[in-house]
Design a protein that fits this description.
mainly alpha; 71% helix
């Protein structure tokens, strides 16, 4: 019952800022940066696996 009282109170949390505005251009640029970084990480992972295979085969 006590938990229900806490949630039913008039106080609600804001999970966003009403003052914050993100332009579509900025959002698209950030998405492109994120996609590029994700690809770089994927490439590094692939290179690491290939290097690991070549080192294992030598020993």
């Amino acid at each position: 019952m006590e938990v229900e009282k806490k949630f039913s109170s008039s106080y609600t949390l804001n999970f966003f800022s009403k003052e914050m505005i993100i332009t579509k251009k900025s959002l698209n640029e950030n998405q492109l940066k994120f996609t590029y970084q994700k690809q770089l990480i994927s490439d590094l992972d692939y290179k690491y696996k290939e290097l690991s295979k070549s080192i294992d085969s030598k020993f």
